[in-house]
Specification:
With 419 residues, the protein is α/β, with parallel strands linked by helices. The chain contains 14 helices and seven strands.
Length: 419
């Protein structure tokens, strides 16, 4: 049986799930208090600022301070950025939302986050020049997440978004190369083109088992490092992170048809050529949008021996179609439309394409058997606390503006599909 060939320890898969659940809305370190591990301690903290109260109705973007802090962001710096954006008096594209200042400059989302990214990058370069590689690594991590947030949610493919994401990847690479583990930027061939993936290698001589890691609908590959550092590297497992179909470096392959897992299979093809990877021990983990994809992968690619789908939508929310689309907040809807390469106002087309991603409608779940070991991990339901001083901004906030029982039922069913 195929499932008898597995990753070097299945406990590592459980560790993967534990981390991913924390990133999917489970209770965790309060975003206004916690921060990523750093060798520089309080020297990296900006002066305390008054916490910004996050009213979800007044921001186009979902504010995810806890996740950004876990990836190296300084809560005080991030609070200060949000404060400047909120207090800007410049013209906004939508007067309802703080983060829609039109012109580049003070108060503009991309400008403000790019500015703190450049400041962190300068401090990283200075620390490296001074021989403090650990401090430099931490500052590069901070720079990478600030640039990543500047580009977030990458729904317009503007030159400013693309420049910010390029800076994020470059800073990420500099941080990775100052760590104790190996790092490579891979070009993965697919359908006449190539997309980029990040390969992280644990200490040792290899060959190593490997986990393919993809996030949600607007979560970039520059946000997967904690999974490797905290769980996979200590277990001697490599990780490949890459952007989902229609997003980031994979935007040339829109998610407008169900075979989004073709990117995963292309990565497997690439890894089988790598001397340090054990091609007989390949697994995959995906969160939300990525969870649906790795669920499909369990049926379509026998070379993948184990998958973990964390709050990945399977059928019910997706099959709700137009009802599901209508209940999405503006930012997840815009991100979804960008991934599918469909105008955000074309809700009927969006609903049609979303229904196609149902693993039941595709004829997999409930109709076919797979010997791939699979874990389907639902999101732990927790109250939404939108203050940036508390558990911050869960990656899955309530997905319905209406609080009617029917709308909230749809929200519960669709919440895990919004990223």
């Amino acid at each position: 049986m195929r499932h008898q060939v597995r990753l070097s320890t299945m406990a590592a898969s459980v560790a993967v799930v534990t981390l991913a659940v924390a990133g999917c809305g489970a209770a965790g370190t309060p975003a206004g208090e916690g921060r990523a591990e750093s060798s520089t301690g309080s020297s990296r903290s900006a002066a305390p600022v008054e916490a910004v109260e996050i009213d979800e109705e007044k921001w186009f973007r979902e504010i995810r301070l806890e996740d950004w802090a876990a990836n190296g962001g300084d809560p005080a710096v991030m609070q200060a950025v949000l404060r400047r954006i909120q207090e800007s008096t410049d013209e906004r594209e939508n007067a309802q939302w703080f983060d829609t200042v039109i012109e580049p400059g003070p108060g503009n989302w991309i400008t403000e986050w790019t500015t703190v990214g450049k400041e962190a990058l300068g401090k990283a370069d200075a620390a490296r020049a001074g021989g403090d590689s650990r401090a430099a690594r931490d500052w590069y991590r901070a720079a990478s997440i600030y640039f990543t947030v500047a580009a977030y949610p990458q729904h317009r493919e503007s030159a400013h978004e693309e420049d910010a994401y390029r800076r994020a990847k470059d800073a990420y690479e500099k941080a990775a190369r100052l760590g104790d583990s190996g790092f490579e930027r891979l070009r993965v061939p697919l359908e006449g083109g190539t997309f980029e993936a990040f390969l992280h290698l644990p200490k040792g001589d290899g060959p190593f088992p490997v986990v393919l890691s993809t996030g949600g609908i607007d979560v970039a590959k520059t946000q997967n490092r904690p999974l490797f550092d905290r769980h996979l590297a200590p277990a001697g497992i490599a990780m490949v992170s890459f952007d989902n179909a229609g997003f980031g470096d994979s935007k040339d392959w829109p998610a407008d048809h169900p075979a989004m897992d073709r990117l995963h299979s292309a990565v497997v093809d690439r890894l089988r050529e790598h001397d340090l990877i054990d091609a007989k021990r390949i697994g995959a983990v995906g969160v939300s949008y990525g969870g649906n994809t790795v669920g499909r992968l369990a049926f379509t690619d026998e070379r993948v021996k184990a998958v973990v789908s964390v709050c990945g939508p399977v059928h019910q929310a997706l099959d709700a179609g137009l009802e599901f689309i209508d209940n999405l907040p503006p930012q997840p809807r815009a991100a979804l439309a960008a991934r599918l390469d469909v105008p955000v106002g074309n809700t009927e087309r969006l609903a049609q394409l979303v229904r196609r991603t149902s693993l039941v409608n595709q004829g997999y779940v409930g109709k076919q058997r797979t010997d791939t070991r699979s874990w389907w991990w639902p999101r732990r339901m927790t109250p939404s606390r939108r203050s940036a001083t508390s558990s911050g901004s869960p990656p899955h906030p309530p997905t319905a503006r209406s609080r009617s029982p029917a709308a909230m039922d749809t929200a519960r069913r669709s919440r895990s599909a919004t990223r």
